[in-house]
Amino acid sequence: MDRILLSTNYPNLLGLALHKLIPEKASELFTDESYFIRTFKNQLSSIVIDINECPKSTSSIKDINIFIFTQIFKMFKNLQYFKFNPFDGSHYDRLTFCESRPYILSSTLLVLRVVVDCYEDCLYLLDGRFNQLNTIYVTICSSKVPTLPVVNNKLIYYQIMTYKNFKNSKIISYIDGFPQLNQFHCHIYSYSYPYSLTHYNYITNNFRGGLFKHDCKISLVDERPFEHEFFLQIAKSFPFVRELRIHNLEPLNNDKQQCSIIEYPHLTKLVLIQNHNHENYLEQFLNSSKMYLSNNIYLIADYDCLQRVTDNFTSDTTRMNSAKTKYLNLDIQPELSLDLIKDYVPRAELC
User: Fold this and answer.
1) What Å distances lie between residue 3 and 23, 131, 243, 350, CA to CA?
2) pTM for this structure?
3) If pLDDT is split at 50, 70 and 90, which confidence band does 54 have?
């Protein structure tokens, strides 16, 4: 990483994602005197941090996380987007403010994504210190999730309204429980009219519906299976969606029943993440009797899953939608049946 950052100047660099950082290395990177801070502190507006597990770490990972989190807001004065840990909720990226309350303020931050230890940590982030914040994604990791009495939408809504910038805005807030992960996710969206958000992430079966004409990128995540009716609701609520990501390890329960055809006329990218054990989500979208897709689809899926769904690239049921694929990205690529793929998906470019 040092070799890349020191090799040349990056005058047009506005965003940077740092993944799998070793804790001590991450701590050194964000000291006041570091080359990284001196070079980019007035330049970056978007930062993603992901700390890697390191058994030999000599410092408290909690202290390191708080140090990095504090330094980010202390040094980067133009920060608008900050993501601390992508999704998995590992304790190596978890923040807690119960033992110490660092002085953190930002008048530029618009979007924040974090993983915290407890509900009180979430409230600490919502006490007005980020006065321009309009979207926050919080994963709260707690063994008390099922019985936590203070977790309800009314309390979350009350805490949001402490933001003076939110008073004239439309608020969407809800909480999703993930018992298998021992987590619950608190989602808070704020927007003013006209509605301008272009993405809506981590939608679950708890989705309340609505009409979101400007959202072109959405992701669906849950521990409970998505059914045909859910995909129909998503199509109605997001009529212009272009990119759809699906992450669900539970199979559809009613994938064999007769259903109406769902239309995604503007979809150009379909990503199925870790769904290789349950190919019926892929079948749901490739089956032309269930789904209508536009041309020029960029499909990211598992090879074995695709092979099963298409009956080794021979099924007529999935042939029509498969033929609309322009780019095909297969997660696992053993000895590919290239001739069969090219015949079944004639316009697709493997990437």
Assistant:
1) 19, 37, 34, 32
2) 0.62
3) low
48, 18 in Cβ contact below 8 A?
yes
Question: How far apart (Å, rounded) are the C-alpha atoms in residues 29 and 54?
Answer: 16
Q: Which two tokens stand for residue 244?
A: 């759809």
Confidence band of 82 (pLDDT split at 50, 70, 90): very high
Phi, psi of 304 (to 5 degrees): -60, -40
Q: Compute CA distances 193 → 212, 237, 323, whole Å.
A: 12, 18, 40
Contact 84, 116 (CB under 8 A): no
Q: CATH: 2.40.30, 3.20.14, 3.80.10, 2.30.30. Which one for 194-351?
A: 3.80.10
Q: Which residues share a beta bridge with 46?
A: 15, 81
Beta bridge partners of 187: 137, 174
Is 58:95 a contact under the CB 8 Å cutoff? no
